[in-house]
Design goal:
mainly alpha
């Protein structure tokens, strides 16, 4: 880890029999821990672990504790200064626990969006013309788009 004035090197042991994929996720988690511990203002995590990044990109289907931990650490780094309603709405959208979720036994489906499509978190983001990057970096913009499109009742 490099700061403006120092450079730190860390090593840690992965659990035995870890796959490369799992090791990439553990390394990402540890990098986020370092950023949080050192209160880094700007954080860049450089990795060639494309599969782990693609996996985390599908954030609303993440169920494993390791991956959920990574997502919660990312959320902690990105502090929201929005009103409570906006924070709740954005948190539900990030975690996939939105109001339009319907559980039928072990299967999860979603109510219909205003455009008649299934109102999943990814659909809502696409429907308002936003991106996952905006959800993580521009909370106020995403919240205002959800409000403007009249989709608060689904999230």
């Amino acid at each position: 880890m490099k700061t403006n004035t120092e450079e730190f090197k860390y090593r840690f042991r992965n659990p035995d029999n870890s796959s490369v994929f799992r090791s990439e996720l553990v390394a990402t988690r540890e990098a986020l821990n370092l950023a949080l511990d050192h209160r880094a203002s700007d954080t860049w995590i450089l990795t060639d672990g494309k599969s782990s990044i693609q996996f985390l990109k599908d954030w609303f289907n993440v169920l494993d504790m390791l991956e959920q931990g990574i997502l919660s650490k990312l959320a902690a780094l990105i502090q929201c200064t929005c009103p409570r309603l906006a924070q709740t709405t954005l948190s539900r959208l990030r975690t996939g626990h939105i109001k339009s979720s319907i559980f039928n036994g072990s299967e999860k489906t979603y109510a219909s969006c205003r455009c008649s499509a299934m109102a999943s978190p990814s659909h809502i983001i696409a429907c308002i013309g936003a991106s996952v990057g905006q959800l993580l970096n521009e909370e106020d913009v995403v919240f205002n788009l959800i409000k403007r499109h009249g989709l608060l009742d689904l999230v």
